[in-house]
Write a structure and sequence with these properties.
The chain contains 4 helices and 12 strands; from the N terminus they run H-E-E-E-H-E-E-E-E-E-E-E-E-E-H-H. It is mainly beta. Strand 8 and strand 9 form a beta hairpin. The two termini are 31 Å apart. This is Cupin domain-containing protein.
């Protein structure tokens, strides 16, 4: 059994729709009313949620977006490359890891409504991170666009989009 398989079993991670494996570890008891969240939300949200998220070099987290900010926290394994495209079409690559001397960041905030994808940098490796979402995550806020939708919106990033989408 590989180290990634041991972590998946130990933390009881399940497959995630965008790729990789996850488990929700925290959902606040308190909620926020929709009036304070704006028109993007149709119902109450928890203050915050948190998950474990594991990727292997055999898969990736496909381009998607949510309506909230999402904070990525590095825990273990290979550094991870996060690809972010803002609504205005600004593309960034962020390396999340623990080697500060190489410019890796142990945590990074993806702003609400930005498209993002992630991949493990090292071959035959895995990455274990945590993701904190505020207001709390709900699958009603999750958008996994089709490849052609993203390419038509951001044709200048076609190669990244083709590589980091499933359909």
């Amino acid at each position: 059994m590989t180290e990634a398989e041991k972590i998946i079993k130990s933390l009881q991670l399940q497959p995630h729709p965008e790729g990789g494996f996850f488990k929700e570890t925290y959902r606040s008891q308190g909620t926020i009313n929709v009036d304070s969240l704006g028109e993007d939300f149709s119902e109450k949200r928890n203050y915050s949620t948190c998950i474990y998220f594991l990727l292997t070099s055999d898969n990736f987290s496909a381009f998607h977006r949510i309506k909230q900010d999402e904070i990525w926290h590095f825990y273990k394994g290979s550094p991870i490359k996060l690809h972010v495209i803002s609504e205005e079409g600004i593309y960034k690559k962020i390396i999340i890891g623990n080697n500060l001397e190489r410019g890796e960041l142990p945590q990074y905030v993806v702003k609400a409504k930005q498209y993002f994808a992630a991949e493990v940098i090292n071959i035959n490796d895995f990455t274990l991170v945590g993701c904190t979402v505020a207001p709390g995550f709900d699958f009603n806020d999750f958008e996994l666009p089709k490849r052609n939708q993203l390419v038509s919106k951001f044709p200048q990033y076609q190669s990244e989009i083709n590589r980091l989408t499933n359909h």
